[in-house]
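We read letters as residues; the fold follows as tokens. A sample entry reads:
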Amino acid sequence: MFTRSVIFSLLFSGAAAPVAAQTVFVDQGDSWSPSLRAAFYTQDQGSRIMPLAWMEALAQPDGTPFLADGLARYGYLPMPDRDDGAALPVGFTTNEGMGGTAIGMTCAACHTRQIEVRGTAYRIDGGPAIVDFQSFLADLDAAMQAVLDDEATFDAFADKVAGGTGDRAGLRAELETWSLRFHTLIDGSLPDPGWGPVRLDAVSMIFNRLTGLDLGRPEDAYLIPENVMLADAPTRYPFLWNAARQDMTQWPGFAHNGNDLLGLARNLGEVYGVFGEFHPIKKPGLLFNRDYVTNNSANWGGLKALEEWIWDIGAPRWPWGLDAGLVEQGGAIFARPTDQGGCVECHGKRQGAFRSIFHSTWATPILPVGTDERECEILTRTAKTGVLEGAKVPLSSNTLGAEAPAFDLLGASVIGAIIQHAVGFRVTGGLEATGAAAALQKDDKFMAEFDDLRGAFPRSGDGSALETAAEPCKYEARVLDGIWAAAPYLHNGSVPTLRELLTPPDERVADFTPGPAYDLEAVGMAVEQTAFDHVIETTGCDDLSSGNSRCGHDYGTALSDDDKRALLEYLKSI
């Protein structure tokens, strides 16, 4: 399995590490403080992978503890001064669930970047994490399989978890149920070749996790295995600075964005995907005829805090020297029309749609740029509805049938939970006050408070992504502040540097090894990497549905070498 070349940088002290002698926290503005950073790294959002005691007792194939290196072998970053005292990396959380303390994940696991230049590590909060999530998932699955397949391994595990007098038979039954569910997800989802570091197919994994593991019958461990499909549309983790300010979001731009309610919908869907506990219950007469909140581990306060903090994360400022003359020249090139090699028409800062009286938004154009289309193709997936068959669709007159678009199931599960959570605070007797809840459904004033959620997900019948797969695939064009810290490029992470992105598609490198070693001149991932040995192999313009095509976005490729150099210098500066 992949190995890390950089062992623990001691992040919050002056002590030296073996390779990266120090960690520099890149300037991300006055609003982003060390205290907010520490909170962002550990804020629980309701994710529960497994009991913490289980992961502490699991072993790697060579017998060393699964957590021995703090998961650094997958690229996760050490955090030795955690308030909860857990020996876990940045972005891994603990909460009370699963009969005790559970381990989970939060935003920072996938959105904290560290790059290396000349022996120094540079930390960029909110940046795309350079982590190998697929290998983490596969190895965790294998480690639990090993416990169940070998009696001696189980005994050693049970000694650590249950002790000499614990209920070993009960423990084995719990492990078998957990493993059945997790292995069903992993075996059906993970592609070969894998996503590689810094990429994952987030949309498919959320669909798989929700429709495959949450909507079945309790006697079937809530599983609907046929809903789990290959997650073969990898995308690069997006950066978080200015993410809350976009008026549209998600790589294909299918979601309205820019206020707290829409942010909650975005983040709750993410929690469902990263192991939140969620099992809706049939309850005729209840609002939407389903209970979306009783069996739901979402940490509502934590989700609210995380969304507020995202507004505070500033774009990282280039920490090395700049050529002021080149920056000025590059700024003029950036401001040119698109047909003259400029960027501003798609990536400039313009007032976006109105979403809130508290924040303005930036316009986020959704455009066809000739890039890989696999991400768009998965948006039309359908799934068996399980426990949601017959459920009323929130903010709609529709009812779910035996099969429905996966987005309809996700939308119902997210929007239903948000509205019912609000009902629990407004109705005497809480959610169980079914008569009052039913009356609220007809209360236009109350339901109007959630109108913005109509744009949180595409829905069947609204003419959006669920019906328009035949049209050219479109992706969001974000404001480019801090883009120097977001390699690899294009939505699917198929181009390692900005310099390479300014190269005609048929001349771009066909494969590269992702990792933290950074190239200051090419602005992106260096050719030589030692942290991982995974190679991302891309396809050309003859295969736009591979998930790995490097084709498209040929803007600026006809600029002169001098103009390209100036444009790169400007992109470093913003």
